[in-house]
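Duplicate of earlier report; Rieske 2Fe-2S domain-containing protein input re-posted below.
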Amino acid sequence: MTREDPDNPARPPAGQRLCALADLADPGSKGFRFRNDRSLFAGFLVRQGDSVAGYVDSCPHNGWPLAVMDDRYLTREGDRIICAAHGAMFRPSDGLCVAGPCADEHLRPWAVTLVDGEVVTA
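Output:
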């Protein structure tokens, strides 16, 4: 079962609390791992202001996780998501690759929403 599989049994169900919005720096990011038997789901959140986006933690270029170190998905400026393996850069708002070997491809979205200051899966 790959990380990109929307039917992955390790993907958390809708309504799963991930964290409080206040737990995310602005701008900031946070990774999550969920396991169900032998299946793994890896995703991450990116915050910019009051907006939070979720993505599956898998580069469209090679399928590897984007961050080498926990929660380090953004450039120093906090304006782009970066793949540590080969430097591809993605817009936080929609996951579009704007530089690198996967230009014009998108990160796979992970549906999340804000409910009373909490980030939950949608």
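The longest strand covers residues 39-48.

Merging into the original ticket.
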